[in-house]
């Protein structure tokens, strides 16, 4: 399967497929797809859909049904859109390994091209959000402060004030947003994976999402400055209390033992 | 004035002495110093725990005064224009704004804030451990009961001073904590709504609570605490320190190093050590990053909403409580909040009244200056461990969401664990601790009677292997047998002197029962007697 | 509870009254107190070179402290407040905070370490004995005090002149009332303030993200949106107070999945508007699980089922989450049809 798709892959296919996937959402991004290329795109789009279908029947159909209609093991994929596929497969959540309270993220085993083909196939089943362009999710041009406010209104209740994650009911959880690709964050907001509610463009504008990503980039990335020092996981008073007890009081008790200990006596000769 | 013995060539006392003379003429310092300059303090690491508290309290006061120079206790809304980019242009209260200013635009302000907060956590933790040290060694017994109560009050006041301080920056986390407090006040039957309106100057959050908490945090509570600390220290001086049993250490003396110079250097030095350690922690480890939390808005929240550790047990109580609510005759009894609100002080009072219960059970009216080893008071030790277990169960409840995420558990399961463990865990802890204490007592008894296991195996001529037990020195024998053992109280005669049946009050029955559980057979291991010892040692040497 | 309650024999044998008297090991009592062991010398007590070494160590520590303080001042003057450095393994931190804290910490710690090392190695470590003295007064002193007190009480005539006594107690008992009365103006009376929010018929639902009114088509199934009443602005004087009651969360559930009839009736085509304020103690509750339709409170884990009238299904909350009746106005925007029927937020005595 992999061989087959690799052989057929055109050097530009990835770019074209990406554009196509966008186009199929209803021409929202039609401006990126010049008219004179439309014919060629259509052809390669149906090609991608074919490839995606093959990938789908191997990796996804057992739970989501042969036509994406869903089974008792997995929801219908009609209308979830390419963005949902890109998120679920791109973060390794799908294909799921085992049932449980929540499907965790894991190492992604598909190439981006394969994900795009899968996405093209799922998008062909019913209209849904497309994979966002880099311009949409890039932190550049974001109003970080506004993003912070939006984050605290919409996201912090589950994901913690700087996106360190938190608990939900019965073993479910909101994952940490550390090191998550901004594209995936954007897609998660758009599509609402698993139990996360969606924040569609109609109620949370593209600029809103960009601001949120910009804020997260500022407060939860490798370059984030924690002026006060070690952030103890950014989890608030629980870890601070543990640190205060173990290292704060612990160090002081160690010092106290030294202060109160008897000085070594001279050895009797 | 002419008592000087050290006069220089011109017959004039040295300058220091002249200053002291001047002071003595007005304050009587010589008489004061006579008793105290060479006052003896016994050396033991656990006796330094109180000092950790005292010094962190001083550090908190010093840094707190600095912070008041910059903090604006006001809830007027302003727009942030400071140097922290992710909040620029946001609306926030002046309290939050000035805390941001301290953290980002005052040089060293962040350090002082972090020292203040870390010292507060250490202060409370130190008090907790200090209190447990006093508890487990029986240092609360006569004549120190009042000082136990002072210490307890300091711990409780420290909790509330901490809570009010934590609320001052008006950040998203502390605001959520204040909202919780408002909900708790509302749950009080009959007057709750009024109390809440008076506390907040109207509806929550209003514009008053920061200023009010500020007065409570910097003036009212620390003022009371300062008074209590002074009284606590005066009593420590007056009673003289307790000590562990040992050769030469009796109930009527205190053995150790003199205040001048050793303890002055050690205690004075320890202040700097504590301050130094906390300063280094504040340099390396961030605490309460309000810039990440953001300003408070009643419609925003972050998961992981917890108070500082010392309030964590109350958080656990409220998280584990089932949602009981009773509506009757147009009124609502909010048991789901009110019951935890009532248990909260009871948890603290439970440990505070223990010394008085114990002294009632023993009926002992004598002074005690020799500390118990925890094993030699098995019931007391078991009660203490059960209480700590109880407290820790509630702490776990207060962090149930983080337990769930970090140990991959269901938050509902953690909550159910806390609900059950709240009742079961202290009982288990009590039983287990008591058995461990009794085991340790038996070991001490064996050690006294049979000597220390040397680890040397010897083969006897007829082939038997024995381990050589080294006899203990007299110092060790004395130390291991110095503790006192009570006999259980018995209910007095059933009939009085006229042969008439006596009415036995319930309290007397209860006391007899408790006493039996403290000191009856199987509740303590009788310490070896001289006769037992002689019989074993004189017979066939050590076996 | 006098000591007669406990027979003397139940108390442990009389405590050792010897003070520090050194009891020699005797045949009679092998457990007797042998007295303080003889003092042993430290190396520094007998070896002047070791003592010198200690002296140098202490001096070095004090010197370190001086240098660290100079370092503190130098850091304060030279390091800009906004400069960051990377410190492994901590990460990017404020250079100034790091430098000031470390130098201050070292300066203080070195003083302490110096003093303690000095005390431990160079000051005498000979233990001395202090006798304790009885705290209780002698019977003579006690008798004198009681006699003095009785004399004073008699001279005051308080026992005889009951009128003085009673009125004095009355006055002392009453005057604190002034202090309590003075607290009255701490806040207004509750009245019915907790029963009303800004919502009223015709108020548009304003999206908190976009600050625009919303059409039903904007709200997708599985989405979560937060709304506030039209006309409320963040700059308003009473914004905090009003949003604390009026904050709203909007979700959309397929009408087939809505279990409660009234919930469906109060919705607009499956768009449900619930109070965002937890009915337990008032945390903003909005951890919405779109597949289970449960919403969890991050503070105390009360869990509500939004598909079933906001009923409590777990945790300490005592009653359901209030739902706001919504509809669509002539222009097609979502609007409130009424205020909340019951008070939002935590329960209180008068809630009923």
TrEMBL record, chain A:
**Cell wall biogenesis/degradation as a keyword?**
no
Q: Which UniProt keywords apply?
A: Cell membrane, Electron transport, Heme, Iron, Membrane, Metal-binding, Repeat, Respiratory chain, Translocase, Transmembrane, Transmembrane helix, Transport
Binding residues for heme c 2: 155, 158-159
Chief place of localization:
membrane
Tell me if Hydrolase is a UniProt keyword of this record: no
Q: Which SUPFAM superfamilies does the record associate with it?
A: Cytochrome c (SSF46626)
Query: EC no.?
Result: 7.1.1.8
**Processing after translation:** Binds 2 heme c groups covalently per subunit.
Its transmembrane ranges are 242-261
Q: Where in the cell is it found?
A: Cell membrane
Which reaction is this enzyme known to catalyze? a quinol + 2 Fe(III)-[cytochrome c](out) = a quinone + 2 Fe(II)-[cytochrome c](out) + 2 H(+)(out)
Question: Per its UniProt record, what InterPro entries does this chain match?
Answer: bc1_cytC-su, Cyt_c-like_dom, Cyt_c-like_dom_sf, Cytochrome_c_Oxidase_Subunit
Q: How does it sit in the membrane?
A: Multi-pass membrane protein
Top-rank taxon: Bacteria
Q: Name one GO molecular function term.
A: iron ion binding
> Which parts of the sequence belong to the Cytochrome c domain?
47-126, 142-220
- Where on this chain does heme c 1 bind? 60, 63-64
Enzyme kind, highest EC tier: translocase
Under the subunit heading, UniProt states: The cytochrome bc1 complex is composed of a cytochrome b (QcrB), the Rieske iron-sulfur protein (QcrA) and a diheme cytochrome c (QcrC) subunit.
Q: PANTHER family, alphabetically? A: CBB3-TYPE CYTOCHROME C OXIDASE SUBUNIT FIXP, CYTOCHROME BC1 COMPLEX CYTOCHROME C SUBUNIT
What's the protein called, per UniProt?
A: Cytochrome bc1 complex cytochrome c subunit
From TrEMBL, chain B:
Q: Does the keyword Cell membrane apply?
A: yes
Q: Which GO terms describe its biological process?
A: respiratory electron transport chain
The membrane topology noted for this protein in its Swiss-Prot or TrEMBL record is:
Multi-pass membrane protein
- Cellular location(s): Cell membrane
The residue ranges of the Cytochrome b/b6 N-terminal region profile domain are 19-245
Recorded catalytic activity of this chain's protein:
a quinol + 2 Fe(III)-[cytochrome c](out) = a quinone + 2 Fe(II)-[cytochrome c](out) + 2 H(+)(out)
Q: Which PANTHER family match?
A: CYTOCHROME B (PTHR19271)
Q: What is this protein called?
A: Cytochrome bc1 complex cytochrome b subunit
Its taxonomic path starts at: Bacteria, Bacillati, Actinomycetota, Actinomycetes, Kitasatosporales
TrEMBL record, chain C:
Q: Where are the transmembrane segments?
A: 58-79, 85-113, 163-183
- Disordered: annotated segments: 1-40
- Pfam families for this protein: QcrA_N, Rieske
Span of domain Rieske? 245-335
Tell where it localizes: Cell membrane
Describe its membrane topology.
Answer: Multi-pass membrane protein
Q: Origin, by domain of life?
A: Bacteria
> Per UniProt, which keywords does this protein have?
2Fe-2S, Cell membrane, Disulfide bond, Electron transport, Iron, Iron-sulfur, Membrane, Metal-binding, Oxidoreductase, Respiratory chain, Transmembrane, Transmembrane helix, Transport
Q: What is its main location?
A: membrane
Tell whether Isomerase is among the UniProt keywords: no
Cofactors required: [2Fe-2S] cluster
Q: Which SUPFAM superfamilies match?
A: ISP domain
UniProt GO MF annotations: 2 iron, 2 sulfur cluster binding; metal ion binding; monooxygenase activity; oxidoreductase activity, acting on paired donors, with incorporation or reduction of molecular oxygen
Return the GO cellular component terms, semicolon-separated.
Answer: plasma membrane
Q: Function, please?
A: Iron-sulfur subunit of the cytochrome bc1 complex, an essential component of the respiratory electron transport chain required for ATP synthesis. The bc1 complex catalyzes the oxidation of menaquinol and the reduction of cytochrome c in the respiratory chain. The bc1 complex operates through a Q-cycle mechanism that couples electron transfer to generation of the proton gradient that drives ATP synthesis.
PANTHER family, per the entry: CYTOCHROME B-C1 COMPLEX SUBUNIT RIESKE, MITOCHONDRIAL
Family, according to the entry, reads as follows: Belongs to the Rieske iron-sulfur protein family.
- Assembly and interactions? The cytochrome bc1 complex is composed of a cytochrome b (QcrB), the Rieske iron-sulfur protein (QcrA) and a diheme cytochrome c (QcrC) subunit.
- What protein name is recorded for this chain? Cytochrome bc1 complex Rieske iron-sulfur subunit
Name the gene that codes for it. aioB
